[in-house]
Amino acid sequence: MFKHLFKLIWNKKKQNFLLITEMLVSFLVLFAVFTLLMFYYNNYKKPMGFDYQDVWVINYNNSYQTKNVDSLDLYYETLRKTIKSLPQVKEITFVSGNIPFSSRTNQSGLTFKGKHIDHLNNFTVEDYYKNVMNVTLLEGRWFNKQDVVSKNQSIIIDSDLKEATFGNEPAVGKLLGNDDDKNKFKVVGVIQTIKRNGDYLKAGPGMYFRTDTGSFRWLDKILVKVTPGADAAFEGKLYKTMANYMKNANVEIEHLANKRTDANYFALVPMIILAIVSTFLVINVALGLFGVLWYNINKRRSEIGLRRAIGATGGSVSAQLVSESMILATLALIVGTFFAIQFPLLNVFDLPAIVYIEGILLSVLFVYLLVLVCSLYPGKQAAAIYPAVALHEE
Amino acid sequence: MIRLQNIEKVYRTDTIETLALNSVSLDIAKGEFLSIMGPSGCGKSTLLNIMGLLDAPSKGEIRIDDQKTGGMNDKQLAQFRNKKLGFIFQSYHLINDLQVLDNVELPLLYRDTTAKQRRELAAEALEKVGLANRLKHFPTQLSGGQRQRVAIARAIVGRPEIILADEPTGNLDSAMGNEIMEILLSLNRNDGTTIVMVTHDENMAHKTHRLVRLFDGAQVQ
Fold first, then answer.
1. According to the model, what pLDDT value does residue A389 have?
2. Number of folded domains in chain B?
3. pLDDT tens for each residue of B91-126
4. How far apart are CA B1 and CA B62, in angstroms?
5. Is residue A77 domain-shared with residue A126, that is, in the same domain?
6. On the CB side of A230, how many CA atoms lie within 13 Å of its CA?
7. Within 10 A of A13 (CB to CB), how many other CB atoms are there?
8. CATH at residue B153
9. Do A239 and A108 fall within a single domain?
């Protein structure tokens, strides 16, 4: 029967061309939507890597400038003690500007064992960063005072960078740096990659450097871990403390949890727009398919009547029409998959291959489901055609 | 072979009730070639549809090969039609998108046969109707007479005991009509196939064993 149906479809290839094209276009649009959806979902499934709740960000413009490093240190250490003495503050840390959920980045590249890693995030952090952010240590340790005297500069890498460089092997104690660089960094710890771009976007590999004595010159953010329930009154008090200490500096306080919400919103907007557009498209495609199948059935009443007369049951007529639609969908999906598979093969948009594969599988499933739903009712109507009537219509 | 007892067929709409067949009783013997004649709208095709189990009578009983067909479900009716009956229509009802051989194979698709068996049986049937050299043609590439011969090949491919022909020569000129009639007569004569033919043509009807005339749904001869 399958061969018979295939022959019937092949001999009507001109009439079926538009229908196949319609299914192909819907597959390609759905592939884009599902790939993006899976990309977001896969990122969402990954652990956050840190705790953003009750972490506040103090932005300040660095007004205190002195050539004397000791004076600089004293100025900021005094500020640290002042803030930390507030009862609602659990811990504070000075950090570089590229904190989680901010649009600021500090990136470099790295060539390791001939493999080039692009968009490598560089974070400058203090020893207190771990406690403020509650980062997940996977291997080794966090920075401490012994890193000051280390022969090679100590770094901490995240799990993405570890996977890209050392794979499944332990990374702690190993040297990392560009192939031609003599002063390589020594890995002292590996942390879970923190999702700095929000729940839905890829964080990218990152490495963490310990602040040194001159870092206060350019650090312009403080992360403050506050006690749960720290309120607006405390925020006002913290602001006043900062403003009183840093005369003429612009101070702004944000909450990391709010910044995460904003980051997620900006990530979701294109997805929501694409989903709305594709929903309308799918509805149009479904109506189109339904209309074409319905029209085909009306055109084929004589054939349906004949098939009933020579031994087909109503069910088998219905099954035949549904099967024909499914074969057409299969032809469209073979062509569509050929195009879609080029994305992981050519590494377009630098997404993991699995995301594309999941996108292809979901789109295939959806198109089959759509075609099935759209052909079921016309198929049922075809089964209800009365052979005695259909055979005398011509 | 076919026994119709007091067959009545009433078509009902919201406002009108039409009596298409009025108490028709017929006994058709195995190997008989029967023709049915009558003016348009007298119920010839309705009677043929009822004999072919394509339509159910409003009243009465049909027995084919001593089997009561009244209580059969859709699947049983389909199987019965497939094995016992062959149909020939005035407008051929060939599928234009399928080659001649594929058209003839159609009834065998609904049986448990292999592709090879289907091809062999279809080629054999086409040879019987003189179209062995047209297997790969499409129906649109054939003349009316050739198309009707394809339809006959399709009707006989499953070796049914009964052929029901609804005005098989109605769309053909007299020469082609005679050719078709000769094929039907030979099927009846040589293979013992029971044939019931609806026709408007007196000449064709007189070539058959028996003629039944209908008028206003009732049997008058």
1. 81
2. 1
3. 888 998 899 999 999 999 888 888 899 999 999 889
4. 10
5. yes
6. 21
7. 11
8. 3.40.50.300
9. yes
Interface mutation vs chain B, best among A300, A306, A394, most B CBs within 10 Å: A306
In this predicted model, what pLDDT tens digit does every residue of A350-391 receive, in sequence order?
Answer: 788 999 999 999 999 999 999 999 988 888 888 888 888 888
> Cβ separation of B97 and A391 shorter than 8 Å?
no
How many domains does one find in chain A? 2
A348 falls in which pLDDT band (50, 70, 90)? confident
Question: Does residue B176 sit within a domain?
Answer: yes
What is the band of A82 on the pLDDT scale with cuts at 50, 70, 90?
very high
In terms of residue numbers, what domain contains A81? Answer: 62-249
pTM of the model: 0.78
Report chain B residues whose CB lies below 8 A from the CB of A11: 97-99, 138
Residue B112 falls within a domain, yes or no?
A: yes
How far is it, in rounded angstroms, from Cα B126 to Cα B149? 8
The two three-digit tokens of residue A45, written as one number: 């499934």
SS3 A300: coil
* Chain B residues closer than 8 Å to A311 by CB: 78-79, 81-83, 107, 110-111
For residues A303 and A358, state if they share a domain.
yes
**Domain assignment present for B196:** yes
- Is the residue at A120 inside a domain? yes
The pLDDT assigned to A67 comes to: 77
Helices and strands, counts by H and E, chain B? 7, 10
Q: From A192, A223, A249, give the residue that closes a domain.
A: A249
Q: Which of B51, B75, B109 to mutate to test the interface with A (most CBs of A within 10 A)?
A: B109
Q: Considering only residues B67 and A78, tell me which one the structure prediction assigns the higher pLDDT.
A: A78
Q: Hey, are the CB atoms on B110 and A316 less than 8 Å from each other?
A: yes
Q: How big, in percent rounded to 5, are the helix, strand and coil portions of chain B?
A: 40, 25, 35
Residues A13 and A72 occupy one common structural domain = no
Residue B4 resides in a domain? no
